[in-house]
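INFO  loader      accepted 1 record
INFO  loader      residues=71
INFO  predictor   begin
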Amino acid sequence: GVLAPSSSQPPAQPADGECCGRGCDDCVWIRYFIAQEEYERHMSGNPVARDVNQEALTALEERLSRDAGEG
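INFO  predictor   done
INFO  writer      dumping tokens
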């Protein structure tokens, strides 16, 4: 799962099968992208946050589309 990033380690991507593909409000991919953004801000020393919602949703849609094509 997605863990809070430490100062030296980025968050781990969700493992295959962790996302149910139902568009949950608290999707593991959304949590991952938020944690990744926090990690990158921490590492850069820049407290200004990007809007990662669109990035997270785009990545989730791409993954779900790929997964649907594999079945």
